[in-house]
């Protein structure tokens, strides 16, 4: 079995998988073939035998319906009924012929086709007898027609129907043959599948027996050699020496090469360890001196950092005070700007008020003019009322002269005179009211003119205050600019001092880290010396020659 030992793992694993795959493909192919056979038989049964048998049964039914229609035609009491039954008979007979022909076509069997042809001939003979029966009935010879139909006609009908019975029997025979064929195919397929499965099982058992031995045995040997190497006295001269040419054999060769390289490296490491032990002791002494110098430098940088921090705090305080002054100046500037805006809005409002007073004065003037026009109209109304009063008085005098006939006219004249008097009184009251309105309008016009003049003076004063406020704002802005420059200079100085402070702090931190590192180097040097001594002892455990 040397060839199996030297076979690569690709083939050791691939061949069994390929064999199992082949067996699986064979089993699947056989199963698909069996399913195809069953499907074909099922198609024959469902697509040929069942439809063909159904057509034969339907043809037998149509044949009986045709016979019943013939008998009803013989028993019909009038020509119309006889004609209808003959049509039914002909229709059913035609359907029977078509169904038998379709059944023979579906079955696809020569014997069934022969029976269908014979059925067609027998139906032709029965149709000929039916034609003779119809002729006898049409001639009025009903008894002879009945005798012919029940004699030769019935015998010929049975002969034709016998062909259908034979076709039904043929369908049953074909179904039995198909069932037997299906059962035989099933038995053959079971035998074939069982054989294939047994072969596959045998191959699996062989693979389970042979493959683990061919793979695990060299692995176990290699594991035992490596375990001996790791738990022994460190003999690096031991080799695995696996003769196999597979992946495990090549791995064993690489491990042997590694052991040879490791043997050489350990030999060199043993020599280097001795030199490292001496150098580690010298490094520990130098590290202790370096740590002492770094500690002194760290103390000096701490003192410089403290002084720089105090200077930074002083500059930051100055910058903070200047910043507050700049903020106060800015706040004053903003308030002055707000006040200027307020004054500007006040000027706008007062000017708008003056314009409103002008428009109101114009309205009062129009009101005065309208009141004067109303007074003129009232004078006209008053004159009309006086004239009406005189006319009413004259009418009353004339009515008194007329005596009894002018009494009604006198009453009307009295009412007119009364209304004229009331009109004069109302007109006088309206005139008084209009005079008061005119007087108030003139006073309002004078007050509005005075208010307009005062609003103009107010605008002038507010604008003067605005100009003074702009001067103050300019001064405050100048102060704010100077304080901003001072604050900027203080901030730059503070930034410079902070940069110096950061550099000193960084130097201090570096000194601290250097001191810590020096201490760590000293500790590491001591540890390195100890490890070098320990490594020297460990190297002594390996046997390199």
UniProtKB/TrEMBL annotation:
Keywords: Cell inner membrane, Cell membrane, Membrane, Transducer, Transmembrane, Transmembrane helix. Residues 273-298 are annotated as: Disordered. Residues 272-508 form the Methyl-accepting transducer domain. GO terms for molecular function: transmembrane signaling receptor activity. Residues 286-295 have a biased composition (Polar residues). Residues 213-267 form the HAMP domain. It is found in: Cell inner membrane. CDD domains: HAMP, MCP_signal. The chain crosses the membrane at residues 13-35. The keyword Methyltransferase does not apply. Residues 276-285 have a biased composition (Low complexity). It is a multi-pass membrane protein. One of its GO terms (cellular component) is plasma membrane. GO terms for biological process: chemotaxis; signal transduction. Its main location: membrane. InterPro entries: Chemotax_Me-accpt_rcpt (IPR004090), HAMP_dom (IPR003660), HlyB_4HB_MCP (IPR024478), MCPsignal_dom (IPR004089), T_SNARE_dom (IPR000727). Residues 459-504 form the T-SNARE coiled-coil homology domain. Belongs to the methyl-accepting chemotaxis (MCP) protein family. PANTHER family: METHYL-ACCEPTING CHEMOTAXIS PROTEIN CTPL, METHYL-ACCEPTING CHEMOTAXIS PROTEIN MCPB. This is Methyl-accepting chemotaxis protein. It comes from wastewater metagenome. The lineage of its organism: unclassified sequences, metagenomes, ecological metagenomes.
């Amino acid at each position: 079995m040397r060839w199996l030992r030297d076979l690569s793992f690709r083939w050791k694993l691939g061949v069994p998988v390929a064999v199992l795959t082949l067996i699986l493909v064979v089993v699947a192919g056989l199963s698909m073939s069996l399913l195809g056979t069953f499907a074909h038989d099922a198609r024959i049964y469902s697509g040929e035998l069942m439809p063909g048998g159904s057509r034969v049964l339907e043809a037998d039914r149509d044949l009986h319906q045709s016979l019943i229609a013939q008998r009803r035609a013989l028993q019909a009491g009038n020509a119309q009924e006889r004609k209808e039954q003959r049509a039914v008979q002909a229709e059913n007979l035609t359907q029977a012929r078509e169904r038998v022909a379709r059944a023979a076509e579906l079955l696809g069997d020569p014997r069934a086709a022969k029976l269908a042809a014979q059925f067609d001939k027998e139906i032709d003979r029965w149709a000929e007898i039916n034609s003779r029966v119809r002729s006898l009935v049409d001639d009025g010879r009903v008894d002879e027609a009945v005798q012919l139909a029940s004699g030769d006609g019935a015998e010929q009908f049975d002969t034709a129907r016998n062909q259908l019975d034979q076709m039904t029997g043929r369908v049953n025979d074909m179904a039995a043959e198909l069932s037997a064929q299906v059962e035989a195919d099933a038995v053959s397929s079971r035998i074939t599948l069982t054989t294939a499965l047994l072969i596959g099982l045998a191959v699996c058992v062989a693979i389970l027996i042979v493959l683990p031995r061919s793979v695990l045995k060299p692995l176990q040997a290699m594991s035992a050699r490596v375990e001996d190497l790791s738990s022994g006295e460190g003999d690096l001269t031991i080799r695995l020496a696996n003769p196999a040419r597979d992946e495990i054999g090549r791995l064993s060769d690489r491990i042997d090469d590694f052991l040879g390289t490791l043997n050489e490296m350990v030999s060199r490491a043993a020599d280097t360890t001795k030199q490292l032990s001496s150098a580690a002791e010298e490094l520990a002494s130098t590290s202790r001196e370096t740590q002492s110098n770094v500690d002194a430098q760290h103390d000096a940088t701490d003192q410089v950092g403290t002084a720089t921090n105090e200077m930074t705090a002083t500059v930051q305080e100055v910058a903070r005070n200047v910043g507050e002054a700049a903020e106060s100046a800015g706040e004053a500037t903003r308030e002055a700007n707000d006040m200027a805006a307020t004054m500007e809005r006040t000027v706008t409002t007062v000017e708008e008020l003056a314009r409103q007073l002008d428009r109101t004065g114009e309205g009062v003037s129009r009101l005065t003019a309208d009141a004067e026009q109303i007074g003129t109209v009232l004078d006209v109304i008053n004159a009309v009322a006086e004239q009406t009063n005189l006319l009413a008085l004259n009418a009353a005098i004339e009515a008194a002269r007329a005596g009894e006939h002018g009494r009604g006219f006198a009453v009307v004249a009295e009412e007119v005179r009364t209304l004229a008097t009331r009109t004069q009184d109302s007109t006088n009251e309206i005139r008084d009211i209009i005079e008061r309105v005119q007087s108030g309008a003139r006073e309002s016009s004078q007050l509005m003119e005075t208010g307009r003049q005062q609003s103009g003076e107010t605008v002038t004063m507010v604008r003067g205050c605005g100009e003074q406020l702009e001067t103050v704002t300019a001064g405050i802005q100048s102060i704010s600019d100077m304080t901003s420059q001072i604050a900027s200079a203080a901030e730059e100085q503070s930034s410079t001092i902070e940069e110096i402070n950061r550099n000193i702090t960084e130097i201090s931190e570096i000194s601290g880290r250097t001191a810590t590192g020096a201490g760590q180097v000293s500790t590491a040097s001591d540890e390195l010396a100890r490890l070098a001594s320990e490594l020297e002892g460990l190297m002594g455990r390996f046997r390199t020659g």
